[in-house]
């Protein structure tokens, strides 16, 4: 590939004297001008440059001609109708962007963007509208603000990302090849981490932890393949800790490149990582990274929408697709070396519509290698249908509440928690469940706030409820926030209710506190709705363990005789079951030539591999951690 100086090409195409600065913003280009007229009525020259270079080019005001933030805030508040309910106005001064957070973003945009244009004309700032979460959470607001704290740093960082992508090949290129190493998540559920190498690029895909393994819970970053200063980009498929839990550690050790993910993945990840530190501290363990490292991670995210194509290195182009697993979860499509090879990494995948999300995508422009999960890949892992699962959950909860018992649902924080909330809200609204308070503890509440800010990611049915019928189930009165230890005690001492709390596998966090208090009462119900990792307390209880010892201070134990009912409803899982995995691969268009199977207990992975091979005559591989496969 010949070295191409994109910025020079642009200067040669546009009216050079009107441009004061040019910067990359990741794969896009931003031009700044001090010329007000040119800003508001750019000529054909910018369009010509877009056509020529096939890149997104945006024209913004040079910070030198911007009006003061105070004035701009006043005029925006004057121009935008009150019904839009502006929650916040945030300035990104180095990039001349003003972000307006409102409950009704449509009213800030105006008819066909008319109000936005008016704001730009009046203030010269580039207005950007975001939906404010209708469920309030201070921590969500704080996370969203991190991106604006160091405006100049972020401008320069995005500019560097662009230079890395476009400044041509930096490593010696001989023969073309593609190689994938598995640094975690192979033949296991937990610590997912893949390293993609080409002659030009080093890309890390997911970097998670295994919360059920207190000794070896981290990916093999000591593999000779992995050199942190060579990593060009990190991609995060979704916000569960087994996929994102170790990313801040990369920043602790000096990584300062981009992390690609969707917006909800960025927000929910931050929340779960903060919670992870808290849980570690409660267990008196070294959290391995700090809040500052999480902040660095947020500062270096580059968010993408589903199906938005973007270059991430000189020879890799990424597209994220809906994975149907949790809010913002994506399958990662990588187009390598100008058509040399195409990979789809599914991350965690649900090939069925859920209460919140649409089923995963199956159509791609090109596809040679599929890398899929196999959490429920074994022959026997056929889950109940969604309808059967919903009925089972509602009837178990109903019986408990009618018996004056309490229901504890351990949840991962993101995913099943919100699915179960939707299900219970609907059942109470329609009368199939008696109305009782549904307590949403700690992080689950904050994550639900994030969910409420991204209705565009929901399935069409839920979008219709929210946008056309003005019925947002997340805002229902039945949900009550539990924010402190005192409030938690009130729930424990109080009336029959439903409690949703982390962690999902009872490996720490408030769910364990509730278990200690609810567990010895046979009226109560312990309800599992998500995958319980091998070795976790949740799995041990599912396997029949009823005498549970908890550490309480130095060398002391308290023992719980578990008398509460234990019910597992697996059909609500965010993972595809065996049948759905088989149908997903069958439905892929185009058909892959090779399937690599990860993210499943070893017997399940091998079982799925042999069935896929038999059914579709495709080469299948179930690698081990530290294996590497040459894909091309
Ligand atoms: Zn997941």
Topology, element by element:
Elements: H1 6-13, E1 19-25, E2 28-33, H2 36-40, H3 44-53, E3 57-61, H4 69-79, E4 86-92, E5 97-102, H5 105-109, H6 114-123, E6 126-131, H7 138-149, H8 151-166, E7 179-184, E8 193-197, E9 202-207, E10 233-235, H9 241-244, H10 247-252, E11 259-261, H11 263-282, H12 291-299, E12 301-303, E13 310-313, E14 316-322, E15 330-336, E16 341-345, E17 369-373, H13 386-402, E18 407-410, H14 416-430, E19 438-441, H15 443-453, H16 460-467, E20 479-482, H17 485-493, E21 498-501, H18 510-518, E22 525-528, H19 537-542, E23 547-551, E24 557-561, E25 565-568, H20 578-587, E26 594-598, H21 602-616, E27 619-621, E28 628-630
Parallel strand pairs: 2-3, 5-6, 9-10, 10-11, 11-12, 16-17, 17-26, 18-21, 18-22, 19-20, 19-21, 22-25, 26-27
Antiparallel strand pairs: 1-2, 4-5, 7-8, 7-28, 8-9, 13-14, 14-15, 15-16, 23-24
This protein binds zinc ion.
Verbal overview:
This protein is α/β, with parallel strands linked by helices. The protein folds into three domains: 65-147, GMP Synthetase, Chain A, domain 3, CATH 3.30.300.20; 168-380 and 575-630, 4-Layer Sandwich (Metallo-beta-lactamase, Chain A), CATH 3.60.15.10; 386-568, Rossmann fold (3-Layer(aba) Sandwich). The chain has 21 helices and 28 strands. It has a seven-stranded mixed β-sheet. The chain has a seven-stranded mixed β-sheet with strand order 13-14-15-16-17-26-27. It is globular. The structure holds zinc ion. Residues 238, 240, 325, 348 line the site of zinc ion. Zinc ion is lined by residues 238, 240, 325, 348.
């Amino acid at each position: 590939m010949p070295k191409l100086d994109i910025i020079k090409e642009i200067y040669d195409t546009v009216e050079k004297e009107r441009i004061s600065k040019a910067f990359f913003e990741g794969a896009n280009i931003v031009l700044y001008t001090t010329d007000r007229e040119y800003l508001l009525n750019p000529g054909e020259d910018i369009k010509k440059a877009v056509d020529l270079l096939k890149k997104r080019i945006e024209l913004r005001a040079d910070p030198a001609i911007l009006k003061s933030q105070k004035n701009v805030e006043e005029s925006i508040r004057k121009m935008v109708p009150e019904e839009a309910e502006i929650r916040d106005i945030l300035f990104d001064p180095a990039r001349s962007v003003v972000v307006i957070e409102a409950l009704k973003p449509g009213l800030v945009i105006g008819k066909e963007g008319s109000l936005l244009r008016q704001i730009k004309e009046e203030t010269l700032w580039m207005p950007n509208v975001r939906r404010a979460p209708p469920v309030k959470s201070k921590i969500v607001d704080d996370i969203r603000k991190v991106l604006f704290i160091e405006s100049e740093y972020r401008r320069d960082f995005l500019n560097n990302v662009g230079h890395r992508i476009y400044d041509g090949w930096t490593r010696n290129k001989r023969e073309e090849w593609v190689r994938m190493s598995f640094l975690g998540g192979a033949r296991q559920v937990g610590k997912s981490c893949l390293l993609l190498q080409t002659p030009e690029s080093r890309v890390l895909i997911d970097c998670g932890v295994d919360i059920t393994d207190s000794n070896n819970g981290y990916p093999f970053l000591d593999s000779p393949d992995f050199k942190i200063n060579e990593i060009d980009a990190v991609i995060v498929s979704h916000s569960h800790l087994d996929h994102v839990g170790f990313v801040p550690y990369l920043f602790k050790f000096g990584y300062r490149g981009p992390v690609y993910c969707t917006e909800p993945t960025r927000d929910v990840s931050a929340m779960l990582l903060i919670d992870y530190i808290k849980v570690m501290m409660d267990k008196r363990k070294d959290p391995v990274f700090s809040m500052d490292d999480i902040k660095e991670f947020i500062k270096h995210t580059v968010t993408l929408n589903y199906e938005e194509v973007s270059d991430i290195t000189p020879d890799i182009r990424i597209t994220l697709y809906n994975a149907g697993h949790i809010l913002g979860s994506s399958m990662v499509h990588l187009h390598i070396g100008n058509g040399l090879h195409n990979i789809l990494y599914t991350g965690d995948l649900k090939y069925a519509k859920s209460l919140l999300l649409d089923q995963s995508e199956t159509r791609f422009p090109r596809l040679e290698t599929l890398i899929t999960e196999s959490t429920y890949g074994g022959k026997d892992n056929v889950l109940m249908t969604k309808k059967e699962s919903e009925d089972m959950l509602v009837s178990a909860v109903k019986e408990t509440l009618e018996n004056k018992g309490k229901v504890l649902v351990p949840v991962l924080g993101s995913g099943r928690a919100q699915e179960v909330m939707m299900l219970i809200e609907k059942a109470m609204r329609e009368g199939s469940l008696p109305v009782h308070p549904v307590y949403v503890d700690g992080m689950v509440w904050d994550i639900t706030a994030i969910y409420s800010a991204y209705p565009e990611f929901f399935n069409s049915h839920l979008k219709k409820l929210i946008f056309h019928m003005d019925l947002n189930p997340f805002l229902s009165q039945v949900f009550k926030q539990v924010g402190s230890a005192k409030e938690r005690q009130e729930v424990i001492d109080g009336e029959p209710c439903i409690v949703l709390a982390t962690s999902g596998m009872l490996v720490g966090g408030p769910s364990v506190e509730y278990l200690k208090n609810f567990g010895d009462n046979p009226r109560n119900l312990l309800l599992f709705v998500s995958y319980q990792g091998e070795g976790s307390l949740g799995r041990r209880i599912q396997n029949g363990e009823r005498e549970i010892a908890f550490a309480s201070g130095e060398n002391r134990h308290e023992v719980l005789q578990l008398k509460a009912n234990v019910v597992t409803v697996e059909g609500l899982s965010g993972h595809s079951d065996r049948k759905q995995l088989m149908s997903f691969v069958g439905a892929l268009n185009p058909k892959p030539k090779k399937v690599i199977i990860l993210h499943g207990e070893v017997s399940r992975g091998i079982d799925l591999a042999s069935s896929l091979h038999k059914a579709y005559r495709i080469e299948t591989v179930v690698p081990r951690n530290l294996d590497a496969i040459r894909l091309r």
